[in-house]
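Appendix B.2, paired examples.
Example (i):
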Amino acid sequence: MPDIKVMHYGLGPIGAAIVKQVAARPGFKIVGAIDIDPAKVGRDVGDVVGLPRRVGAKVSDDAAKALKSAKPDIVVLCTSSSIKKVMPQIETVLNAKTPIVSTTEELAYPGYTHIRLARQIHALAKKKKVAVLGTGVNPGFAMDTLPIALTAVCERVDRVVVNRVQDARIRRLPFQQKIGAGLTTEQFQKKVDDGSVRHVGLTESIAMIADALGWTLDRITDDIQPKLASVTIWRRTSDRRRRTIRWTSRDRRTCRCASTAGSTGTSRRRRSSSIRSRRCSRRRPASIRCATCRCRRSSRGGSNFRRRAALSGPPRRG
């Protein structure tokens, strides 16, 4: 049986991870990729995503031309969470008579929130005689397909509760931005109000479960509340030119420095034993900067001091 020819549409963090999975599995052949990033266009797909070998297929920014040239058996679409944003891309692929598997969250079960677009996709797919599938870990499995499958052994289902907990620290940057990580309470609420921070796909998962169980829903509500950090979070950054390492506070409302006034009026700052205090009036090359009071820290230890700071982690409370 010949290998399935795959074309990847979108080489962001998710798209690149899927490329690695497809490249590692037998029965698939990567014949091309599409991405609008100029830094990726014209390069081998393997080089772009970090594979140990080249796959012999280059990245193109012209979807119609790439589809016509490579003639893939299927397109893996990983460009956006919004069905409205991917609609032109879906139309381009379907016009090439190529089936689609997409990670677009709103495409997992679009008949509830995007009825008009869902009907357009359905009509065009039927006309071109190809399939369109929206799937993923969530939505597509964890909070909908899996609960539906578990109800198969139940005589009666009165309620379905799904709790999903994630550690956003190890997730990709676009995901952290999508959930509002690192924002103040006011910034978070502003993004919730304009719709840029939300649980994409939650409505689709609820609608899928309700339809599978034969339930008629009165409404679906999505209540979003921020989870505030109980401690100050520090971010490590480096300056290669000066070879320094800084720990910057992400919470600018608090300061790990304790300010005290000396007898002569000179401002002093206290830190833990791993970082020596110095008067702010002394102008020296900074290795540690406080994000709140903007004071600078230095040490006679030079690079040894900076290495100790890097090994000991962010300063602890004294």
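Example (ii):
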Amino acid sequence: MNTLLIAPESDLLRLPDEARHIQEALGAQTISGRVTPMLVADAISNRIARRQAIDILFFIGHGNLTGLSLSDGYITIAELCRYVKSANIRYLILNTCESEYIALAIHHETNATVICTIGQVTDTQAYATSRLLAEAIAQGYSVEDAYERARPSGAGPSPYRIFSQIDDARIDQDHQTIKLLRAVLDDQFRRNQTSIGELKTSIETFTAYVVDLIQDVAELKKAQAETVTLPTNYKIVYTLAFLAIFVPVGVFFSDFRQALGINAPLAYAFSFLFYTISYSLFAYLYGFIANRSKKP
């Protein structure tokens, strides 16, 4: 069978040996090393252009609900379905961890037979399964029979599963499951989008609040710096300051000076002394003396 093998570089230690044995057993065209979505698209398109069939698409590596992981990006489920339809690919072998959703979606959309994993598979187990599967196909077994010969069996459920037209009755039930899964995923996606939008709004509101708070603190510090603090004995000081203003008022009248027996120059000197005292007291109150214009 004409086979296209995709084996992007990854942290799987046995992947190079696994890819080499599959290539030798099936004579597969291999895309390995740094694999990108464009490289895969070109390889499949070129096979279609040259009228070269692709019976089996074999993938080894990592995958998730997004699709099959490449060195840079993914092959999404939608792209896989398009490739299967365009190249009339009959079989897909996805030797990745937990690829059941991908396999079921592709089989539902294209009716292609898909082998996948339904749980975590060790590197050694994946290597052994794919090698035995490739050798069985090379010996002339159908993909379905080769799967039965190669899949791990014994105590407990097998970590591998096949979706084929032979299982139509069971697949009908699985189709309903995938519809439910798609609905759940779509709903979760919408919820996540809404949550992200709400989180973004909350962050913007909080950021604006913090900016306003910083500005308020700066203005408060400025106002605090300009605030005059009165001394604890400010009432006494106020009283003395005002008394010092009014005490010398009488000496400005000649009758008052004659009654006291003082002349004008002495009266003016007396007034100047009291006005100086009053000015000093007010200066003390408003912080011009003792540097009390700023709080400690």
